[in-house]
Structures are given as C-alpha cells and as structure tokens.
Specification:
Layout lengths: L1 E10 L12 H26 L8 E9 L5 H7 L1 H11 L10 E3 L3 E4 L7 E9 L3
Parallel strand pairs: 2-3, 2-4
Antiparallel strand pairs: 1-5, 2-5
C-alpha cells in the first residue's frame, strides 16, 4: 500500500552510455555532474515536502523524456548516475540486492526538439505489510 509519493524532476536527459568522452577524466566529470544534479534535485524536493531518508519499503520509477530515444539496455545504463544521486539523497540502502526498495522498469517518452528533456523520478513510500 502506497502511503506517500514524491516526484523529482531532473532537467536534462542522461547521456547515452555509447557516447564516449575524449578522455576518462571527461567521462568521469559527466558522471559526477549527472549524479550531483540528481542528488541536489532530490534533496531539494524531499526537504520541501518534509521527507526524511527512507529505510523501509519503497517503489522507485523513472520516466525519461528524450529527443532521441535509446534502446532499453542503453536507457537503463544511462540512468545509473541518476540512480546513484537519488540513493545518496534519499535511499540509504542503495540500489543493490537485498534492499527494501522495488525498482520499476524505466519508461521513455520521445519529445520534440523544442521540448525540455528531463528525467522524472517517482518515489512511493510503502507501508510495512
């Protein structure tokens, strides 16, 4: 049973994992930027709504708005840094196995080139059974 829902809007589409930077340092910089952007957006929205870190059951979903849709494997891989940022801000158990979190398959919506690319993260706090 869902007790409360938090939706975080992170501007900008995550980079495709097939897009390589010129150097390892450049790729690491992009990963850090995406992770920090997701972490800050999640922290701001959580504080605004009075949420504290979730240690109990939760369901997390992603809706990606991109101009150029990715295939499913690349979509999931492109969200890794966003997931890390959300975990740092709100989910202390991380995204590994054995956590009380349920990770839903991400969905993707193609948008026109005049539309804003973004990732919408939905976190649903579930009541303990």
């Amino acid at each position: 049973m869902v007790t409360d829902t938090l939706t975080v809007k992170i501007l900008g589409a995550p980079r495709s994992p097939n897009r390589r930077g010129r150097t390892t340092q450049q790729r690491m910089g992009w990963a850090k930027t995406e992770r920090e952007k997701a972490q800050v957006a999640t922290m701001v929205e959580a504080r605004r709504r009075g949420w504290t870190p979730i240690s109990g059951p939760a369901r997390i979903g992603f809706q990606v708005f991109r101009r150029h849709p990715l295939d499913h494997d690349n979509l999931v891989a492109s969200l890794k840094h966003v997931i890390d940022g959300v975990c740092l801000a709100l989910l202390p158990h991380g995204d590994g196995p054995g956590t009380p979190y349920e990770w839903l398959w991400p969905t993707q919506i193609a948008v026109s080139k005049t539309s804003v690319e973004a990732v919408h993260v939905t976190v649903e706090r579930l009541s303990n059974p």
